[in-house]
Amino acid sequence: MELIPNCPICKSEHTYHDGTFFVCPECAHEWNPDEQSNVSEGLQVKDSNGNLLADGDDIILIKDLKLKGSSTVLKKGAKAKGIRLVEGDHEIDCKIDNMKIMLKACFVKKA
């Protein structure tokens, strides 16, 4: 029995062999197992407009966000400078109004 590798992009176990390629049904990535993988292992995070974010970028909130467990509201248009990208559900670690918070990339745009 042939050993089928996990997807190099999303690490899914549900890949399958299709002719000469392996296919991931979750992220639709196809790769040839005989070729050297050119997949970058770095974290790729996109903002609400589809722009690729990097460590050190400046971002702007696109909507008001109420902070969980607090009465504070982060207003639309608030700017964060020098963000840091992290793994997980909330991809952006930054400071807005002198509060250290973590945000989802779908609520920001690149400044």
UniProtKB/TrEMBL annotation:
Enzyme class name: hydrolase
The Protein YjdM C-terminal domain, residue ranges: 45-111
Leader sequence residues: none
Transmembrane domains' residue ranges: none
Chain ranges of the Protein YjdM N-terminal domain: 5-32
A molecular function (GO) term: phosphonoacetate hydrolase activity
The EC number(s) this enzyme carries: 3.11.1.2
Pfam families assigned: YjdM (PF03831), Zn_Ribbon_YjdM (PF08274)
Keywords associated with the record: Hydrolase
PANTHER family reported for this sequence: PROTEIN YJDM, PROTEIN YJDM-RELATED
Family to which this protein belongs: Belongs to the YjdM family.
Record-linked NCBIfam families: phnA
Identification of the protein by name: Alkylphosphonate utilization operon protein PhnA
Organism the protein comes from: Frischella perrara
